[in-house]
Amino acid sequence: MNTDNQTPNQNREGLVDAEETVKQSVLPFGQRMRAYFFAGILVTAPISITLYLAWLFIGFVDSKVTPLLPVKYNPETYLPFAVPGVGLLILILALMIIGALTAGFMGRLWMRLSERVLARMPVIRNVYSAFKQIFETVFADKSSAFREAVLVEYPRRGMWAIAFITGRTEGEVQNMTEEECINIFLPTTPNPTSGFLLFVPKSDLISLSMSVEEAIKMVISGGIITPLDHRPLDQQKIPLTAAHTYEELDILRENDRVPVLAPKGSRPGDKQDS
User: Fold this and answer.
1) What are the residue boundaries of the structural domains of the chain, listed by start?
2) 195, 189, 230: which is closest to 209 by C-alpha?
3) Is 223 helix (H, G, I), strand (E, B) or coil?
4) Are strands 149-153 and 206-207 parallel, antiparallel or unpaired?
5) Residue 81 CA to chain centroid, in angstroms?
6) CB-neighbour burial class of residue 212 (10 A; exposed 0-12, middle 13-18, buried 19+)
7) What are the tens digits of pLDDT across the range 212-259?
8) 273: how many CB neighbours lie within 10 A of its CB?
9) Is the pLDDT of residue 14 over 90?
10) Counting Cβ atoms within 10 Å, is residue 42 exposed (0-12), middle (13-18) or buried (19+)?
């Protein structure tokens, strides 16, 4: 076989494969079987866990939706076995039909009447209003909620955490602060559905080039999965921040016991006593 036309990359890959083959042949039988065992786990575990969680979700939806079907329309009535996914399919179709109906005149009229009724209920109106605003913000076409991952110093200077922008700070919270603030959600590990809502000055946030999906994977894995830096090489060599920037200020605060917040009367907007 002629090897004169092979590129340097192909030759390098061939040498690497040859070295791996030699290493595997040199390893003792026990260590080789151990390596094969862990390789099998790495291949099968992600697929198995994903399929298992999907199966649990489909089974949960089927158990809630399928019993609501009339007997003559239920496929399980005519089949000797259960059909997985029927309840999920019916739920998707029902949501699509409801969305189509509410887009018309009668649907909008019904929504206005139902909202008026819910607005008169003391406790339910608060719950309904909160959830409605959350879903409208998340599913809006131009919504910026959870569209960008950022780096923030938390829980103190010099320690960093990944957070997600949920919107611009507005209302009383923004009016109370001098800087322009951003709402961020700081998730916990390994459960990203729980976390903290923080109002952080925009200048203290560092935008990340990684996607939201990559950032969530990093949070869930506890840092085991680390996304690659997709920025150009010249940008990768330039750090954007450093912990020692605030080191002297923190030492002065600790020695002199200076409060972090400015005392009343000296904050921007406060009226000085004459």
Assistant:
1) 24-103, 105-139, 149-231
2) 230
3) coil
4) antiparallel
5) 38
6) middle
7) 889 988 998 888 888 888 888 888 888 877 765 555 555 555 555 555
8) 5
9) no
10) exposed
- Of 130, 55, 132, 61, nearest to 90 by C-alpha is 61
> Rounded to whole angstroms, how far apart are CA atoms 185 and 193?
10
Q: Is the pLDDT of residue 274 over 50?
A: no
Residue indicated by tokens 């780096």: 151
Reading the block at residue 81, the tokens are: 């076995």
Give CA 204 to chain center in angstroms.
20
pLDDT for 73: 79
**What is the pLDDT confidence band of residue 25, given thresholds at 50, 70 and 90?**
low
Provide the residue type at 183 as one letter: N
Residue 164, helix vs strand vs coil? strand
Is residue 203 within 8 A of residue 173, CB to CB? The reply is no
Rounded to two decimals, what is the model's pTM? 0.56
Beta bridge partners of 163: 150
Nearest CA among 81, 84, 92 for reference residue 57? 84
Instruction: Give CA–CA dist 253/118, Å, rounded.
Output: 51
Gap between the Cα atoms of 209 and 68, Å rounded: 47
pLDDT(139) > 80: no
